[in-house]
Amino acid sequence: MRGGVDEQATMFSLMTPAQRVPKDHPIRRIKEIADAELARLSPIFDEMYAARGGRYSIPPETLLKSLLLIALYTVRSERQFCERLQYDLLFRFFLDMGIEGNAFDHSTFTKNRDRLIDHEVAEQFFQGVVAQAKGARLISSEHFTVDGTLIEAWASMKSVRPKGEKEEDRPPKDDDPSNPSVNFKGERRKNETHERRPTPRRD
After folding, report:
1. pTM above 0.70, yes or no
2. Helix (H) or strand (E) holding 126
3. Distance CA 120, CA 64 (A)
C-alpha cells in the first residue's frame, strides 16, 4: 500500500473505452460506418487469411480502422500513432481494444500495412467509407483553415498590457523575465486602454 492505494488494484478498471467516449461524439457514427464496410468486405478478408495460411499478427480490419484514424486525426506517422494508441481511449474504442491491451509495435504495424495494401482492399474500404459518409451528410466539400492569428493571440496573452505600465510594475515569475506574473481576473482589455508589447527576450 502506498498513499492508501493498492498498486495492484490500479491495474483493474470497471470502465471501458466505450464508456469514456461521449454518446454524442461523431466518432461513434464513423465507427458504425467503418464496421459496416468491414462486414461487407469480410469475404475478401477470409480469402486473405486462407492464402496466408492463418490470421495476421494485426488483423486487416484493425489496420484499416487504424489508417482511418490516422487520416481523421492527422497523425504524422505510424510510430506516433502507435504511441498515442497506448493512452488514447477514443482510439482504443474505435479499434475495439480494452484498456489493458498494449499498443502495436510500429514496425509490425508498417509490415502488416504493406501486405494489406498489396491486396488493394484498403482502397475499397476507404471508398466505401467515403460513400457512406457522403450519404449520411457527414462530409462537406467545404474546406477550412486554422486561424493562425488566434493561435498567436493565445500564445502571447501576457504581451497585452495596460498603456503606461512599466516593466517593473509586473514582476517576473521565479526571476524569469519572459514569464511575468499576471492575474487577468476582472481585467478588461481594450484597444483604448491596452496595447501589445514585445515579450523581453532571454539572452
Report:
1. no
2. helix 121-135
3. 11
Per-residue pLDDT of the chain (203 residues; tens, 9 = 90+): 444 444 444 455 678 899 999 999 999 999 999 999 999 999 988 888 776 666 668 888 999 999 999 999 999 899 999 999 999 999 999 999 998 888 999 898 988 888 777 777 888 899 999 888 888 887 766 654 444 454 444 444 445 566 676 666 655 544 444 444 455 445 555 556 655 554 444 44
Q: Is residue 159 within 8 Å of residue 198, measured between CB atoms?
A: yes
Residue 51 identity (one-letter amino acid): A
- What the block records as the C-alpha cell of 15 is 470502465
**CA angle, corner 117, sides to 114 and 123, nearest 5?**
150
By the 10 Å C-beta count (0-12 exposed, 13-18 middle, 19+ buried), 177 is classed as middle
User: Which residues have C-beta within 8 Å of that of residue 16, sequence separation ≥ 6?
Assistant: 93, 98, 99
158 contacts 183 by C-beta, under 8 angstroms: no
